[in-house]
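At this stage, I wrote out one protein's amino acid sequence and its backbone structure tokens, and that material follows here:
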Amino acid sequence: MIRRREDLSSPRRGASLGAHYDPDAFGRFSEGIARLLGTGRFLMAQTILVIGWIALNVAALFGRWDPYPFILLNLAFSTQAAYAAPLILLAQNRQDDRDRAQAEQDRHTNARTQADTEFLARELTSVRLTLADVVTADDLRQAVDQVSSALQHLSERLDLLTSEGVASPDPAPS
């Protein structure tokens, strides 16, 4: 007989073993372990521990708890490696996720910057085209010079006509 759930609005939950943990906290823990295992201080401490372990077992000061092939020491290293490798891989995966998210954010920032740059280039082109039709100071200076020379020419002709008696200007009423 197949058991059916009446409530189909929520997804089915997987089998729970009763142990709940925070994946982020565990990830931070694994990153801390990975950072510790990758330091010179850890390697030096481990080297000193191994040398001490071997020296104590060879000299038999406290009884030989781990004779020559040092099986217990190898077991300790195997256990350490069995836990260290997955923790380091978890830390690397978390770093890859952060790098991927940062790369995506950089891509969005670059796209936005490119769009802004293209917009500003279009605006600058528009301003240049608008300014191509605007009268400049040199244009105004040339126009004023032309008007001045035309007035000068008219004034000279008027003086010439007045001196010949052809036209006499009306005296201003007093």
In short: The chain has a mean pLDDT of 84. Helices lie at 23-37, 40-59, 71-132, 137-164. The chain has four helices and no strands.
